[in-house]
Amino acid sequence: MLTVAVINQKGGVGKTTTTVNLGAGLARLGNRVLLLDFDPQANLTSHLEPTGDANEGTTYDLLRDRRPIAELVRETGEENLFVVPAGDDLAGVEIELASEIGRESILRDALARAEADGLAADFVLIDCAPSLGLLAVNALTAADEALVPIQAEFFALSGMAKFVEVQRLVQNRLNDRLRLAGIVICMWKGNARLSHEVREEVENVFGDVLYRGVVRQNVKLAEAPSAARTIFDYAPDSNGAADYAALTIEFLRRHEGVVPADAMERLLRSGPPPAAAPPATEEAEEVEEASGSVESADAAASEEGAAAAPSAPPESEGRPAPDAPEEPEKPLQPDAPPADEGGTRPDAPTAIDPVQADGGGPGPS
Questions:
Q1: Buried b (16+ CB within 10 A) or exposed e, 3-33
Q2: 139 lies in which domain range?
């Protein structure tokens, strides 16, 4: 069982999106994956909408009351993907545990007990809060490695310096097996020079720790949580699905060395078909019938009026038919901009490959 803390003290960099979709990708390739929501905002829980009652237990109960993980695990809509959800009460757990001895290792001890009791999980992914407080320290103390999503921006570099300092502190004092095993660039803007400059700088400092693939900015990734679906189910033909499929394959190649030949096909298989259009309501049917009756009455009246009116003399009798009134000339309108003018459509594959843009980078270790 490999435990990975998906962490960055900066918010809005793609931690939850990466945890959900990397976990779903690993599950689609036959691995049993357990996700732990360690963020008081509970965005991972909202994204997956796990089955069962919300009162069955959360990560708060795991930390505060030492409840076994097996009692808190809940299923999701994705096969082989399980979650221990979070709730609002997690926000106060750091204060409640302030005087607890050994509070930094509660999660590590819980995972060790669960594995000894037969917890069947190949990977455990921990979605961490955007901070470096007790929740993050618990995750790092329990983890084998850290995966850090970042944006290709200037502040990402300064944030990484602080994280590395904390990671080394935890490694020296609480968890000697912890290592920084991966940095993933999310919300990549391939047409921005800054993105390439930041990626080059990160690669110069961290080398092979930086994943070769990037996750491009894609609106489908932002829409998927509202549908409570992973990107592979919500939009399998989107750039977001392609990028997380590539990330999943690179992740597995780094850890297992071998990836199934049909991995990409299995990851991007089509999701459920779109829902059929709802049937018309009784009120809509009544309106349609009334509209049809009015049209029939208008047609009958037009026929009666046409029969009563004298017929116009033909042009051959020397009385030319009056010309039809000309329509007023419409002002010229500017042509509508093409679909990709002023911004790329979310589903258009226009991102620049960062490996080609920056001259290539070292392959995965």
A1: bbbbbbbbeebbbbbbbbbbbbbbbbbebbb
A2: 2-272+347-355
